[in-house]
Structure formats: C-alpha cells, structure tokens
Design goal:
The chain has 474 residues and is mostly helical. The chain contains 17 helices and two strands. α4 packs antiparallel against α8. The radius of gyration is 21 Å and the shape is globular.
C-alpha cells in the first residue's frame, strides 16, 4: 500500500471540521436533507400512471423514470463521499443541493420522457453528494458517542419517515395539483436547506495540500457500480440468464476488480484500501449490506403479496406500510439509546433475531389469513429489528476514522446500504418468481430474507465490543 493520504493534512487535535451556530442547526440540516432525498426516491411512484399518460411513455420508458434516479444515486455515492473529503464537506453539500434543486425544477418542466429521465438522473447525482456529506457532518461534528448515536438515529429516522410518507404525499400532490409537483416540492425545501448551510455552516479545516485526483480509479469504481446496479435492476424484466443482465453485471464486476488493482498502485487513491483494516469500517459495512439486502426487498414483496393475494388496493397497500416504517423508527430509537450503553454488538444481534422472527412469521401467512395477525404484527417485529440494526451498523462503519476520511467512510456505508438493497431485491424477486403460485413465491422469499438478516447477525460478531471515541487512523 502506498503513502497514507492523511499525511497531506495539517496536524491538529481532533476538532469538528465545521463551525455552526448550534448543534441543532447541524442536525436540522442533515435530517432535512435525509428526509428529502428518501422522500424523492418514493414520491414519484404513485404519479407514474399519470406521467405515462401525460408524456406518452412506454412501459420501458416509465421504468427509467424510477431507475435513472436509483442508478445515479447508487453509482455515485462513493465518489460523492470522497469529493467531500477532498474539497470540503460544506462546499460539497452546497454543490449537491444546487444540483438537486436545479434537476427537480427542470424535471417538473419536462415536455417528454427523455427530458424527465435526464432530470431524474440529475436528482440522483445531487442525492449521491448529499447523502454521504450530511452523514459526514454528523460523524465529525458530534464527537461524543452518545450524542453521535442520537444524531445518526435522528438522521436515519428522518430518512425512514421520508420514504414512508413519499407515496402518500405524492398521491395528494398528484390528485390535488399536478404530477409535476412531486418534483417541484423539492425546490422550496432544498432552498431552505441551502440557506441554512450557507448561513449556519463554515469550513474550518482544509487540506494543506490537496491530493491529486485519481481519475482512473474514480472512472472504474463509478462505472463498475453503475453497471452492477443496472444489471441487478434488469433481473426483474429480463431474468438472470439474459444478456441484458449478464453483460452489465460481468462488465461491472470486471471494472471493480480493475479498480482494486488501480487503488493498490496509485499514490493518492480515491479509496485508500487500508481503511478496510479498521475493524469498525469492515464490520459495519458488512452488517449494513446484509441488513438492507434483507429489509428493502420486503417493501417490494409485501406490496405485491397484499395486492395479489389479499386483494388490497394500491392505497390500502400503501397505508399498510406505515406501521412497518414507523416501527423502524422505534427500532432506530432503541438502537441509538442502547449503543452508548452496551456497544454495537447487542442491539445488532437482538435486532437480527427480532427481524428474522418477524420475517419467518410473515412466511407462514396463509392465502386467506388475517391482516392484523398474519401481516401487521410480524411486520412491526421486522421493522423494530431492522431499525435496531441500522444505527449501530452506521455508527460502527464511521467510527474511528480520521477526520479527513469521514466523507469516504460515509460514502462507503451509504453504498453498502444502496447495493445491499438493490441486490437483495434482484435476488429475492427472481427467487419469488420461480414458484408455481404467487403466494408460494412471496412467502418463500420472505423466509429466505430471514436467513439473510440472520447472516447480518453473524457479521455483527466481527464488530468491536465498544466503539472508539473521536477520530482515529486506519
């Protein structure tokens, strides 16, 4: 491994890299951004039918209205996090917000499908900068373990609430105003966040000598991640054996292998591989990846199960998700409270066991079952368990990292979350489709998800018993 990039930074005692008018403002900006970006991931779904009729989109074109955002978001997260380290956390948050606001405004003005898809990709680019940057703000500003756990819990909760309310808000805006408002709603919210960032936050530490930019590594990891996500997203339409799935997947894997080789040779890598020597980083990312691989597909599977098997309407199915989403909030709160007292392992282990119990219970739901008994109670259990994992996993993945690498650590755990979810949906959806009946497919896929979340519990054993205080070095 080559020279550690951290040597290019002024030596100073660990201090928050940002100055703010108050901790409440830091938390408000970070949580507001988390709420907005995850709201945007779900708010457009209920407007798709209206968008298709208004712009004359094909079914494939309509899929790209969703996938363009997810591909740009998932593929650029790592690059966004590293850019925050290189150019400044506050500066990159401003860039991300400007890109997100502009893309939202232009998307609402779209006159055709290509215009809208391009705007959605622009929103994804902005979100890929905002997500790791806001987490980096929290992990470097809140240095006390108890305060940091609470801040990360609030950040996760804001995102969960945004995702939960997206469908409801999108439906209201589409029915009462116009589908374009599902994009325009981001403009006033984004401007408020931008104003708070410009007025309330200021950089205080900068690299004494900015390192050279690893263009080859950046291109390889960005293209590789984008292709893997594209291949995973294609399985729902073409299956695992289709060239439209295999070609991007194999090309993406080849580029990621090339990326590792590049990072071992360049002097200033975009992802210094020695960061994975930190037990916190490697274990936290492993747990986050597996937990999201088990939890995100449940929204997909449960939504289809409720409509195909129990005959729910789309609105009824959307409302049925609210207990799941808010139970994740409850679990996140419990995880953030327990983390400073008992360390990361116990809440992650307990969360994995509770979530697996809920998923096994769901897998036993009969075709003519009762929603309160066969769906509501087990989904609440699953939500509490998954929520209890999220805060300790995120805190672990960003703990003990030197301040000049906080953006990188945040980008890594966000990427683990995104790719775990994307691959989980692809694998479990394909698995569900392999059964003779829809009911059998959904319930068996839920059972498989329980096995994946138990693997997250196994990975939690590699986490340290207690998290280090303040910034450290790999």
């Amino acid at each position: 491994m080559t020279t550690d990039e951290s040597t290019s930074t002024v030596s100073a005692p660990p201090t928050p890299p940002l100055r703010a008018r108050g901790a409440w403002l830091v938390l408000l900006i970070a949580c507001g951004a988390s709420f907005t970006e995850l709201l945007d991931a779900s708010i457009v779904n209920v407007a798709l039918f209206t968008i298709r009729n208004d712009l004359g989109l094909s079914d494939l074109g309509l899929q790209w209205v969703v996938n363009a955002y997810l591909l740009a978001f998932g593929g650029l997260l790592l690059l966004g996090g590293r850019a925050a380290d290189m150019f400044g956390i506050r500066r990159m948050l401003v860039v991300g917000l400007v890109v997100f606001i502009a893309a939202s405004l232009l998307g609402g003005l779209a006159m055709n499908g290509a215009w809208l898809v391009a705007a959605r990709a622009g929103q994804g680019v902005g979100a890929a900068i905002i997500a790791p940057t806001t987490l980096a703000i929290l992990t470097t500003y809140f240095t006390d373990p108890k305060q940091r756990a609470g801040a990360i819990g609030a950040w996760i909760t804001a995102g969960v609430v945004g995702a939960a309310l997206g469908s409801l808000i999108g439906g209201l805006l589409t029915d009462l105003l116009d589908w374009r408002w599902v994009l325009w709603i981001n403009v006033p919210v984004g401007l408020l966040l931008l104003a708070g960032t410009l007025v309330g936050l200021r950089e205080t530490r900068r690299p004494a000598q900015r390192p050279g930019f690893d263009l080859a590594g950046a291109a390889a990891v960005t293209a590789g991640l984008l292709l893997v996500v594209l291949g995973a997203a294609s399985t729902s339409s073409y299956g695992w054996g289709s060239p439209r799935t295999l070609v991007p997947l194999l090309a993406g894997v080849a580029l990621l292998v090339a990326f590792v080789a590049i990072e071992r040779r360049v002097r200033t890598p975009i992802v210094p591989l020695d960061i994975f020597r930190l037990r916190t980083v490697s274990s936290g990312n492993a747990v986050a990846f597996l937990a999201n691989a088990a939890s995100l597909p449940m929204y997909y599977l449960l939504g289809l199960f409720l409509q195909d098997v129990y005959g729910f309407s789309p609105l009824q199915a959307g409302l049925a998700f609210l207990p799941l989403s808010f139970s994740i909030v409850m679990g996140s709160f419990a995880g953030s409270m327990l983390l400073p007292k008992v360390g990361p392992r116990p809440p992650m282990l307990a969360g994995a066991a509770i979530a697996a119990a809920g998923q096994v219970w769901l897998s036993l739901a009969p075709d003519d079952g009762s929603y309160p008994v066969n769906v509501l109670v087990p989904t609440i259990l699953m939500g509490i368990g998954i929520g209890a994992i999220f805060v300790p996993a995120t805190s672990t993945a960003t703990a003990g990292v030197a301040e000049e690498r906080s953006g990188l650590a945040s980008g890594l755990v966000n990427t683990a979350n995104q790719f775990g979810g994307a691959l989980g949906v692809a694998v479990l959806a394909t698995f569900a489709a392999s059964f003779a009946t829809a009911a059998a497919g959904y319930t068996n896929a839920m059972l498989l998800a329980a096995g994946v979340v138990l693997l997250a519990g196994v990975a939690a054993f590699s986490a340290p018993r207690a998290l280090p205080e303040g910034a450290g070095t790999p």
